[in-house]
């Protein structure tokens, strides 16, 4: 199981939001690449980067900080936020990004996700964010009538390499992940599932590792690392 530090970018800076609210941010660094390099130095092998402005404005808004992260971190980088067409996916691939995370478009146009996964096998991740079990899109501003599991099952055998699952109610709250919902999703599909939202302690890592016979492939964590509540090195040891 991988421990994946998150680097969220807003207006070129590294921040964390509370439950996805753009006006509830905490600033951690003026240079996101420095944070990514720090997590890489502490043992991370994959960095999860989110263009928050892109997620809300439906397009790429922070290409230069992301380019710096890819250049300076020395590890694999996956990027999400506002990715809605093949040209954007190609741009990130050309930049050296290892994986691209597609969120809202997975709900609106699942066939696009399948096509782009065939073009870039093993490099497309579907980001599924849920509120009360239902898929939320548009920077979490809209909740659909489709469940997370229903959406995930559409991408079986499509070439999608992973699903990032976030319980919005837990994100940034440090109250522990929604293990029941994450485990249920992991049981519903054969695609590796990464848990996100609410991870706050080493015990959370132990619990996630123990469920569904190891089907949870990794944990994405942000605020707990930035606030010093989760030691990355220790978390990696437990996950291994």
Topology:
Blueprint lengths: L1 E9 L2 E6 L2 E9 L2 H10 L4 E6 H6 L5 H11 L2 E5 L5 H10 L3 E4 L1 H5 L1 H10 L4 E8 L2 E4 L4 E6 H6 L8 E6 L11 H10 L4 E4 L5 H9 L5 E6 L1 H4 L5 H8 L1
Parallel strand pairs: 1-4, 1-12, 4-5, 5-6, 6-7, 7-10, 10-11, 11-12
Antiparallel strand pairs: 1-2, 2-3, 7-8, 8-9
Explain what this protein looks like in three dimensions:
- This protein has helices spanning 32-41, 52-57, 63-73, 86-95, 104-108, 110-119, 148-153, 179-188, 202-210, 223-226, 232-239; strands spanning 2-10, 13-18, 21-29, 46-51, 76-80, 99-102, 124-131, 134-137, 142-147, 162-167, 193-196, 216-221.
- The chain has an eight-stranded parallel barrel, surrounded by seven helices.
- The protein is built from eleven helices and twelve strands.
- The mean pLDDT is 92.
- The chain has a single domain, classed as Aldolase class I (TIM Barrel).
- The protein starts with a strand and ends with a helix.
- Helix 1 runs parallel beside helix 3 (63-73) and helix 9 packs parallel to helix 11 (232-239).
- 37% of the residues lie in helices and 30% in strands.
- It has 240 residues and is α/β, with parallel strands linked by helices.
The level-1 CATH class: Alpha Beta
Question: Treating each run of at least 4 consecutive H or I residues as one helix, how many helices?
Answer: 11
CATH topology description: TIM Barrel
Q: Over the alpha carbons, how many angstroms does the gyration radius reach?
A: 16 Å
Query: Could you tell me the mean pLDDT?
Result: 92
Which strands sit side by side, in order, in the main sheet?
1-4-5-6-7-10-11-12
The count of domains is 1
Shape: globular
SSE pattern: EEEHEHHEHEHHEEEHEHEHEHH
Task: Say which CATH homologous superfamily is assigned.
Answer: Aldolase class I
Strand content: 25-35%
Distance between the termini: 6 Å
Q: Structural class, please?
A: alpha/beta
Uncertain ranges: none
């Amino acid at each position: 199981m991988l421990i994946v530090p998150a680097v969220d970018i807003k207006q070129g800076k590294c921040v964390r939001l509370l439950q996805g609210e753009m006006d509830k941010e905490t600033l951690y660094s003026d240079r996101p690449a420095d944070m990514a390099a720090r997590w890489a130095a502490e043992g991370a092998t994959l960095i999860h980067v989110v263009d928050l402005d892109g997620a809300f404005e439906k397009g790429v808004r922070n290409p230069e900080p992301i380019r710096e992260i890819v250049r300076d971190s020395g590890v694999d980088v996956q990027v999400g936020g506002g990715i809605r067409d093949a040209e954007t996916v190609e741009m990130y691939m050309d930049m050296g990004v290892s994986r691209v995370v597609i969120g809202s478009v997975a709900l609106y146009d699942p066939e696009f996700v399948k096509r782009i996964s065939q073009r870039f096998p093993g490099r497309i991740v579907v980001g599924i964010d849920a509120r009360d079990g239902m898929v939320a899109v548009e920077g979490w501003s809209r909740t659909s009538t489709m469940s997370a599991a229903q959406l995930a099952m559409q991408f079986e055998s499509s070439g999608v390499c992973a699903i990032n699952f976030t319980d919005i109610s837990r994100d940034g709250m440090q109250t522990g992940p929604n293990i029941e919902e994450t485990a249920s999703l992991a049981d519903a599909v054969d695609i590796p599932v990464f848990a996100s939202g609410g991870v706050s302690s080493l015990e959370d890592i132990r619990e996630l590792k123990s469920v569904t016979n190891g089907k949870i492939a990794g944990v994405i964590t942000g605020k707990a690392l930035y606030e010093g509540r989760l030691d990355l090195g220790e978390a990696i040891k437990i996950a291994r």
